[in-house]
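Example 3.2
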Amino acid sequence: MTAIRRGAVVTGAAGDMGGGVAAALAEDGFAVYAADLRPIPQVEGIVPIALDVTDRDAVFALAERAAGECDLRVWINAAGVFEPARVIEADAAAWNRILGINLTGTFHGCAAALRVMAAGGRGGRIVNIGSISGQLGGVGVHPAYGASKAGVHALTKTYALEGAKHGIYCNAVAPGVLEGRMTAGFPPEVLEKIMRGNPQRRLGRMDEIVHAILYLADERASFTNGVILPLNGGELMVG
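Structure, written as tokens:
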């Protein structure tokens, strides 16, 4: 009898973080359903999926497809947007867009993953992407960003409690400011200030976050549930 291949869904897979996680899972032998609105190259182990995470029906359809084609064991909610903005000038349109993708999109992913994994009866792992902004807030970014990530942290705990009944564990990472596309547009003086405020005097690297996500997605992390893992070089201690 041919073994059913392990499967994983990664949303936001065209981004630095989602793409890194998708590639690592594929290298580990997973069939990876890499979902994003932006194009994703088709390579060995990667199934590109065009997906708007704010479309609940589409997210649930993806979950059903993945569960029908493989042994779906991992779901990573990495889709998200970040907008620098002066708090005093923050607008409602951006608020709705950021909350819709970062929080509501994560809700749809958690709900879809829980449903199909519970029905499969073999357990699974859900990993969400939070942020230090969800713990500290911040003034250089639209207030919706921190609010959405604080919501993701609470959502993670809710799905951790419910998922544990089915052997499905839900955790999140909460990175500090990272190197990559998100900070590419920051003025040098802003980045310098951020680094001076960090005990390690640097920004985080994407590979460091990917490594932590892979830990939380691993079956060996079997007593880790409802954790918001801070990945900020110690900044939270002095923030």
